[in-house]
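Researcher: Structure prediction, please.
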Amino acid sequence: MAKRLFLVLLFLCIPAFSYANTIAQCIKQLKEGRISQAIELGKLAVVLHSDNPVSYMCLAGAYAKDGKYNFAKVELQQALILAKSNKLKNDIDKMLISIDNFSSTTKQHTIDNNPENSTDNSTNSGL
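Model: Predicted structure follows.
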């Protein structure tokens, strides 16, 4: 009887540890610069623990580091919906602003360096 109770408790507790571990591993991979692994772990964390805004934040951070700013914004919007504390909401807002600033700077840099956007007719004349 005690053995069965122990096994039941073990199976009930393992998912709780795996949720936290998945989020922690996502954050660890992100900090270590392993972006593709962080994305995969973030996706898993979002599925396993969909009520935790930190899982969405980690996935968003990985997407942003990978240059997928629109995906990052979607994940941060979901995190914002789930966040209960004002501090966490402020952190998410800061991440959104940072992504907006970085993505607009990156877009402008790309436009500025694209020779097709040049107004100088001598470079586009084909001569």
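Model: Helices lie at 2-31, 35-48, 53-65, 69-82, 86-112, 121-124.
Researcher: Thanks, that helps.
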